[in-house]
């Protein structure tokens, strides 16, 4: 027997079909039936677009660290396994290198594919995060938090440059998904998968051990909440599976750390313990005061007083808008009030622990905070989820108001992030400087022209800088600038080969002198899309003879 409510639904459906002329609406029906899957595909598609749109132009250039990633990935293609940790650029975990090598295997080695490899990591993190949030907090929080994830200028930025930090959020959400499946179902294989994913994180990014510390605290709370003494045998089994899987997944990194005396050199150099103020401080209280000072400095840097970072171009304007900060603050209140519930406890623990990846190190306030992003998106979503839930149960007028408030808040945050990233950060003068736009464009040019030899003049970079080494690997050359060569800017060269002068910055003023001394060559001025001069080249004519200048 059909209920009165069911009869009403049937009549309304029939009326709708009548208005459509009785034609089947198969597509609409599929979307309605699989609306959650449609949403996940849509938000992933948006994330992919925002992370790949004009990928080499936002930001313009190609950083030396991106060149190192590309060259190390090429090395993987040549040699296979090259270890869990690499000494390039001061030292970093090799996980992203193997991923980039896979992208090279499929699509070839190029500057675009270096950035594409990290863009894909940032993109794939979004649907994984959705399902992790879905299990932890339900449909509404998952929808809101994954939208914030997809549109986050913070995550977009690190996804669009070939840097390591973006590897941390994806491994975190890939751990959270099976972990909370394990917590909810008590199935042993979910603990095994969660431990494996957590172990793989050792190959992601240097602050990742802080996330592991947070995991340990959460699992301790999981035990305290009453699971262990009710089912001691099962609890011991599950923890053994989790930490055993973690150990074996991270084993090569653990062995490397044990056997390599210099493994921690980079970490020590970046630690606040290497600072003069720490070494001059005496006693626990004095050291705690230093940590407190760094914590305040990190907080203000991220929230209201950004500092420009010449390594990744962050600190240009405000990464978080005011509404996002208010939502995060409200979300913190909510998780504190619900601290006994495991998903809320996990979020609270990670919110408290993960900032120490930046606080206990020097500089890099933004990129060493990237592991906090999934928790921040949850915190932003929680107060809006409360409004959404209230609207679902409210009368029609209030329901419209509630939905409108949630939609307006989400739209504001998304629009701000897109405008901030593409209009402020990635197109700024500081970004062009950080990502060495002049050298990158010059390197691409000489790779296309492919002279036999290059005489390089630049006050900022030597010819061996990784950007040039990756983008023009087969073009030999030498430094001639005063800053990098004992030849002190000399323009006297060997004219018996196909050679090219390359000038960047103030050294472009040498072009007329070179043209006068070696007449008949080909000059070229490299410019940006807005007409700015980036570099100048002069290709010597065949069998050039130097003219004696007065």
Description of the molecule:
By secondary structure, this protein is mostly helical. The chain is 63% helix and 6% strand. The chain has helices at 4-19, 26-33, 35-52, 64-79, 95-107, 111-137, 139-151, 153-159, 167-185, 188-200, 208-230, 232-249, 251-259, 265-270, 276-280, 284-303, 322-337, 342-353, 356-359, 373-393, 396-425, 429-434, 437-449, 466-471, 511-517; strands at residues 85-86, 92-93, 453-457, 477-479, 499-504, 522-527, 533-539. A 5-stranded mixed beta sheet has the order 4-3-5-7-6, with helices on both faces. Helix 5 crosses helix 6 (111-137).
Mean pLDDT across every amino acid position: 91
Shape: globular
Main beta sheet: 5 strands, mixed
Could you give the distance between the termini?
107 Å
Q: Total helix count?
A: 25
Query: Can you give the helix content as a percent range?
Result: 55-70%
Q: What is the SS-derived class?
A: mainly alpha
Beta-strand content estimate? 5-15%
DSSP E strands, number: 7
Q: Gyration radius, to the nearest Å?
A: 28 Å
Task: Please state how the strands of the largest beta sheet are arranged side by side.
Answer: 4-3-5-7-6
Low-confidence stretches: 1-24
């Amino acid at each position: 027997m059909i209920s009165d409510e069911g009869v009403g639904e049937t009549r309304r459906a029939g009326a709708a079909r009548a208005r459509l002329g009785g034609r089947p609406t198969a597509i609409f029906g599929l979307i309605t039936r699989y609306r959650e899957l449609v949403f996940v595909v849509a938000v992933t598609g948006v994330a992919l677009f925002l992370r790949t749109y004009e990928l080499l132009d936002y930001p313009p250039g190609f950083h030396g660290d991106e060149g190192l990633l590309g060259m190390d990935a090429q090395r993987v293609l040549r040699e296979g396994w090259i270890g869990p940790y690499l000494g390039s650029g001061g030292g970093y975990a090799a996980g992203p290198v193997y991923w980039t090598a896979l992208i090279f295997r499929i699509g070839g080695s190029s500057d675009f594919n270096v950035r594409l490899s990290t863009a894909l990591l940032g993109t794939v993190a979004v649907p994984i995060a959705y399902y992790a949030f879905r299990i932890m907090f339900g449909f509404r929080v998952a929808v809101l938090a994954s939208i914030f994830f997809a549109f986050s200028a913070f995550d977009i930025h690190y996804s669009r440059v070939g840097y390591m930090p973006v590897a941390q959020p994806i491994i975190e959400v890939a751990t959270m998904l099976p972990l909370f499946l394990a917590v909810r179902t008590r199935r042993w294989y979910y603990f095994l998968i969660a431990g494996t994913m957590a172990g793989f994180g050792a190959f992601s990014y240097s602050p990742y051990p802080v996330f592991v510390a947070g995991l340990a605290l959460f699992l301790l709370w999981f035990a305290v909440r009453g699971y262990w003494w009710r089912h001691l045998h099962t609890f011991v089994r599950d923890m053994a599976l989790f930490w055993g899987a973690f150990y074996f997944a991270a084993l090569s990194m653990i062995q490397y750390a044990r056997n390599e005396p210099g493994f921690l050199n980079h970490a020590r150099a970046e630690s606040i313990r290497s600072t003069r103020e720490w070494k001059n401080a005496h006693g626990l209280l004095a050291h705690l005061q230093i940590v407190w000072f760094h914590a305040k400095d990190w907080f203000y840097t991220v929230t209201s007083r950004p500092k420009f970072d010449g390594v990744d171009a962050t600190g240009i304007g405000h990464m978080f808008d005011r509404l996002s900060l208010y939502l995060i603050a409200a979300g913190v209140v909510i998780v504190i009030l619900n601290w006994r519930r495991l998903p809320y406890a996990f979020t609270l623990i990670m919110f408290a622990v993960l900032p120490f990846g930046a606080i206990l190190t020097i500089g890099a306030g933004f990129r060493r905070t990237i592991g906090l992003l999934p928790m921040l998106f949850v915190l932003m979503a929680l107060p809006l989820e409360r409004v959404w839930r209230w609207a679902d149960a409210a009368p029609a007028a209030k329901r419209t108001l509630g939905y409108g408030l949630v939609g307006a808040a989400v739209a504001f945050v998304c629009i701000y992030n897109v405008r901030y990233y593409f209009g402020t950060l990635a197109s700024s003068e500081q970004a062009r400087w950080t990502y060495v736009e002049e050298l990158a464009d010059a390197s691409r040019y000489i790779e296309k022209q492919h002279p036999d030899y290059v005489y390089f003049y630049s006050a900022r970079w030597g010819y061996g800088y990784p950007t040039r080494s990756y983008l023009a690997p087969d073009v030999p050359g030498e430094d001639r600038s005063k800053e990098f060569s004992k030849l002190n800017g000399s323009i006297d060269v060997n004219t018996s080969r196909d050679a090219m002068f390359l000038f960047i910055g103030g050294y472009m003023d040498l072009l007329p002198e070179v043209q006068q001394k070696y007449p008949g060559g080909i000059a070229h001025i490299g410019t940006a899309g807005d007409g700015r001069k980036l570099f100048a080249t002069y290709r010597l004519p065949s069998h050039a003879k130097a003219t004696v200048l007065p």
